[in-house]
Amino acid sequence: MREIFFPKRMWRPRGDLKRRYDVVIVGGGSHGLATAYYLAKHHGVKDVCILERSYIGSGASGRNTTIIRANYRTPEGAAFYRESVRLYERLSSELDFNLMFSQHGHLTLAHSDRGLVVAQERAEVNKLLGIRSEVIGPDRIRELCPELDLSDKPAYPILGALYHPPGGIIRHDAVVWAYARGADRLGVEIHPYTEVTGFERSGDRIVAVETTRGRVECGQVVSATAGWSSLVGKLAGLRLPITTHILQAFVTEPLKPFLDVIIVSSQLHVYVSQTDRGEFLIGAEIEPYTTYKSTGTLSFLEYSARHALELFPQLEKTKVLRTWTGLCDLSPDYSPILGKTEIENFHVSAGWGTYGFKAAPIVGVTLAELVATQKTPALIAPFALERFYTDTLVSELAAAAVSH
């Protein structure tokens, strides 16, 4: 009789919920998993459970466009993402998991004099923080990406670009699986298909979390639920200044690889990269209307394909393979909301818009430190919820003009 071998599970199957945990994390995506992992690894806090309403990685972590970069405009944002890129660079080794991180460079194209000025401002901020960024001209762009149409034929000719060599792409599902496996091995409990339905408060504290599988008492709570952040906050009696939009993207049929860098055009509101499978991944700006309805639109396909063809006319006959949408929670200043809230033991990772996946490792490190020590790390202090009451906003719109 032939012996059958079954693959080893990535993490333990869901068990029964305990009556109480030191830390309850709402959201089984990259932020929640990373926070749990670093709580256990860096601080020895292992009495942690992760509650996810669907399967692990089913939300924004599984519906993003995999781009990693640090070339943001504000000193606060650039410094934060710089640390995240550094963590990503060694994450495969740390988690013993091939995350397929390819740092082949990131180009933000400029089609106008003003676009070049903004690119130069971002480059200078980046350089002051030790981030590799520079403004390059058409000749250097042609060396990096000879397939781009650099003629004067397009409606918006390319005048230059902000070049960010550390930028790259990574397998988002691999990041989720690796963090989940790492957290599980350290003793964290992962509970998929467990929806949070409410919170029980006593004064300014959360004392229990209500779920579809029963009530769980808690010491501290972390909400890391991306597009659902405002609704989860409302369950706890917390009002977050967030609107939720959908972001759409699509991939083409596989082609022989020829695009070695990530191409972004803020003026055309489109970005293009090629995946490890040869598919061209094309995305654009978030939809301007607020919604939770994750249905793709024909208008998105039309304008994003049109602008992509202005950059790469050779893709004209390429077929679209599949499309998808994801939910984005957008804050008024396009920067995240991180850390403590007016509820004493309720912490949030929210307001990420379209670039939360880039920050997963550093969010995990800093939120874990906050939960374990009750002290806010300096790196996330500028992103506190209270900034909307003290008028100390961190406007990142200049670096988020296209949603990637």
Summarize this entry quickly.
The protein is of the alpha/beta class and 404 residues long. It contains 10 helices and 18 strands.
Describe this structure in words.
- The structure is a single chain.
- With 404 residues, this protein is of the alpha/beta class.
- The protein has three domains: 20-64 and 173-242 and 332-399, FAD/NAD(P)-binding domain (3-Layer(bba) Sandwich), CATH 3.50.50.60; 106-165, D-Amino Acid Oxidase, subunit A, domain 2 (D-Amino Acid Oxidase, Chain A, domain 2), CATH 3.30.9.10; 243-330, D-Amino Acid Oxidase, subunit A, domain 2 (D-Amino Acid Oxidase, Chain A, domain 2).
- 27% of the residues lie in helices and 24% in strands.
- The chain contains ten helices and 18 strands.
- It has helices at residues 30-43, 75-89, 91-95, 113-128, 138-144, 172-185, 229-235, 298-311, 360-373, 387-390; strands at residues 20-26, 48-51, 67-68, 106-110, 134-136, 160-164, 168-169, 189-191, 196-202, 205-211, 214-223, 243-252, 262-265, 270-274, 280-284, 320-330, 337-339, 346-350.
- Strands 1, 2, 8, 9, 10, 11, 17 and 18 form an eight-stranded mixed β-sheet that branches.
- Helix 1 links the parallel strand 1 (20-26) and strand 2.
- Helix 1 packs parallel to helix 6 (172-185) and helix 2 (75-89) crosses helix 9.
- The protein is globular, with a radius of gyration of 21 Å.
Fold topology:
Blueprint lengths: L19 E7 L3 H14 L4 E4 L15 E2 L6 H15 L1 H5 L10 E5 L2 H16 L5 E3 L1 H7 L15 E5 L3 E2 L2 H14 L3 E3 L4 E7 L2 E7 L2 E10 L5 H7 L7 E10 L9 E4 L4 E5 L5 E5 L13 H14 L8 E11 L6 E3 L6 E5 L9 H14 L13 H4 L14
Parallel strand pairs: 1-2, 1-11, 2-8, 4-13, 11-18
Antiparallel strand pairs: 3-7, 4-6, 5-6, 9-10, 10-11, 12-15, 12-16, 13-14, 14-15, 17-18
Helix pairs in contact: 1-6, 1-9, 2-9
